[in-house]
Write a structure and sequence with these properties.
There is one protein chain. The chain is mostly helical. It is built from 8 helices and no strands. α1 crosses α6.
Length: 277
C-alpha cells in the first residue's frame, strides 16, 4: 500500500479485529445496510461519500473519473489470468492474501502519518477552505487528487478484505494510482504556480492562502514521488512478488508430496496383499 493507505489500513485492521472478537463473543450476525454495503466500515462509507460528491461536483476531469473503473478492470484481469492465488490457498480463503505485504519500523510509521497529513488531511482542508472563500480555482485544482486518493484507499480496503487477490495484484493497486496521481499533482502545480495570479496589493490572508496552496502542491509531489521511487518500486513490489512465488513453490511442493504418497500407496497395498497370501 501507499503511505496514506497504510495509515488508514492499520487502524482499519484493528477495527476489523475488534469487530470479529465482538461477533464471536455475542454470536449475533452483524446488522448492516444489506447487500455489499453491509460489510463496509464507517471509513469506507465516508470514502464512498467523498467519491460520489467529487464525481457529482463536475470538478473531476473525465479521464480521472474513468481511471478507477479501468484500473479495477485491469486488476481483476491480472488476478484472474496472470497472478491468481494458489489453488489450495484460494480454496481456503486464507494465506498470504490476508497478510500484510510489508511491515515497517517506527520511522516508517512516521512516514505513513506524514503522508496521511500531506496527502489527505491538508488537501481536504484546502478544498473546504476554497469552498468557504469562494476560490473555485483552488477547489478545481486539488479535487482530482483527492478523488483518486479516495478511490485508491477504498479499492485497497476492499481488496485486502476479500482475500481473493494475490500479493502482486494488491501491490499494483497503489502503484497504478500513485503513478496517475503524480501526473494529476503536476497539473495541480501548474494551476497554482502558473495559472493563479496574485495581485501585488493583495491582503496578507490572501497571500498566506496563495502560498499555502503552492507549498501543499509541491509537498504532495515530493512525498508521493519519493514514496513511489524509494518504497513502492524497490521494496513493496519485490516483497509482494517474493511472497507470491514462495507460496507458489510451497503449493508445488505440497502437490508433489501428495502425488508421491498417492503413487506409493497402491504399491504398499499390493505388497501387503502378497504377504497375506
Amino acid at each position: 500500500m501507499s503511505g496514506v493507505s497504510l495509515a488508514v489500513a492499520a487502524s482499519s485492521e484493528q477495527e476489523r479485529d475488534t469487530e470479529r472478537k465482538q461477533q464471536r463473543q455475542q454470536e449475533v450476525p452483524p446488522m448492516g445496510l444489506g447487500g455489499g454495503l453491509g460489510s463496509l466500515r464507517i471509513i469506507e462509507l465516508q470514502l464512498v461519500a467523498f467519491i460520489m460528491v467529487f464525481s457529482a461536483s463536475g470538478l473531476v476531469p473525465l479521464l480521472d473519473l474513468v481511471f478507477p473503473a479501468l484500473a479495477s478492470a485491469y486488476i481483476v484481469l491480472l488476478s484472474r489470468f496472470v497472478f491468481p492465488l494458489p489453488g489450495r490457498k484460494s480454496s481456503r480463503g486464507s494465506g498470504s492474501s490476508g497478510q500484510e505485504i510489508f511491515q515497517g519500523n517506527r520511522w516508517f510509521r512516521v512516514h505513513v502519518v506524514l503522508g496521511t497529513v500531506i496527502g489527505l488531511f491538508l488537501p481536504l482542508a484546502y478544498v473546504l477552505g476554497g469552498f468557504a472563500r469562494g476560490d473555485d480555482h483552488a477547489v478545481r485544482s486539488a479535487t482530482p487528487h483527492l478523488f483518486l486518493l479516495s478511490c485508491q484507499i477504498l479499492t485497497e480496503h476492499i481488496i485486502s478484505g476479500l482475500s481473493l487477490f494475490s500479493p502482486p495484484v494488491r501491490a499494483l493497486v497503489p502503484l497504478l494510482y500513485t503513478v496517475r496521481r503524480i501526473f494529476v499533482i503536476v497539473d495541480w502545480i501548474k494551476d497554482v504556480w502558473v495559472h493563479m495570479p496574485l495581485g501585488a496589493d493583495a491582503p496578507i490572508k490572501d497571500k498566506a492562502w496563495f502560498w499555502f496552496g503552492r507549498c501543499l502542491a509541491i509537498a504532495n509531489l515530493v512525498y508521493f514521488s519519493v514514496n513511489l521511487l524509494a518504497f513502492l518500486i524497490p521494496r513493496f513490489l519485490p516483497n509482494a512478488f517474493e511472497r507470491y512465488f514462495q507460496d507458489s513453490r510451497d503449493e508445488l511442493h505440497m502437490k508433489k508430496a501428495e502425488d508421491e504418497r498417492s503413487a506409493t500407496s497402491p504399491s504398499t497395498s499390493e505388497s501387503t496383499d502378497k504377504k497375506t497370501n
